[in-house]
Amino acid sequence: MAVKSGIEWTESTWNPVTGCTEISAGCKNCYAKRMALRLQAMGQPNYRNGFKVTCHPQVLNLPLCWKKPQMIFVNSMSDLFHKKVPFEFVSQIFDVMNKTPQHTYQVLTKRAERLAEISDCLSWAKNIWAGVTVEASDYKYRIDLLRNTKANMKFLSLEPLLNDVGKLDLSNIDWVITGGESGPGARPMEADWVRNIREQCLEQKVPFFFKQWGGFNKKKNGRQLDGREWDQIPNQALCA
Question: Which residues are bridge partners to 228 per DSSP?
Fold first, then answer.
């Protein structure tokens, strides 16, 4: 359940939990749900429950076997802070991440409330990054919840970007990713929404990563913004 990833801002995925439920506007065309149902139809045993939240203790220790350092997106097929994932299992996942400092783990959630609720009970090594999805202006409150956690590295995913998020307070935020929705039924994204985010990142000296324009054919639409690709990541010099 750990595979090389095609997601531009990571290298591999590790899915000790699969399945989720809709919580906000960005969930409408969930790619993970489509993929999970396809894998269920193909008979993949880890998706026998389709997109129902399911813990997979049998894959917990996989990162212990990976000697080559990797950037790992944790639970690309779920949300670690879903209420149906027991705290004990979340804690076990954190134990593995703490035992493997050679890797960098990216933990992204829409459930910022639970993240904030249990953050103090978790051990946040420097290699564990915490992020929240802010797909529209209505969800900017998640940024404050993230900001108050104990994570050493904090990032935002403004994807799928559904409207102009307006002014952003990026204090104590280390990275911003944004991009448009892709796949069937993809909702359009306006260039000025992205430019607004980029300019605020440049002003507040926060690395900015533009993932994609999206659409039904995301490869054709590409990922250039104003004539260039924006691939800034934390701990690298900013390029204006």
Answer: 225
The 3-class secondary structure across 44-111, one letter per residue, is CHHHCCCCCCEECHHHCCHHHHCCCCCEEEECCCECCCCCCCCHHHHHHHHHHHHHCCCCEEEEEECC
For each successive 10 residues of the chain (240 residues), what is the average pLDDT? Answer: 79 97 97 97 97 98 94 98 98 98 97 98 98 98 97 97 98 98 95 98 98 87 95 65
The pTM assigned to this predicted structure is: 0.94
Question: Does a structural domain hold residue 56?
Answer: yes
| Beta-strand relationship, 208-210 and 175-178 | parallel
* Parent domain of 124: 2-229
Classify residue 26: in a domain, yes or no. Answer: yes
Whether residue 112 is contained in a domain is answered as yes
What amino acid is encoded at 222 in this protein? G
240 is a domain residue = no
pLDDT tens track for 156-192: 999 999 999 999 999 999 999 999 999 999 999 999 9
Number of domains in the chain: 1
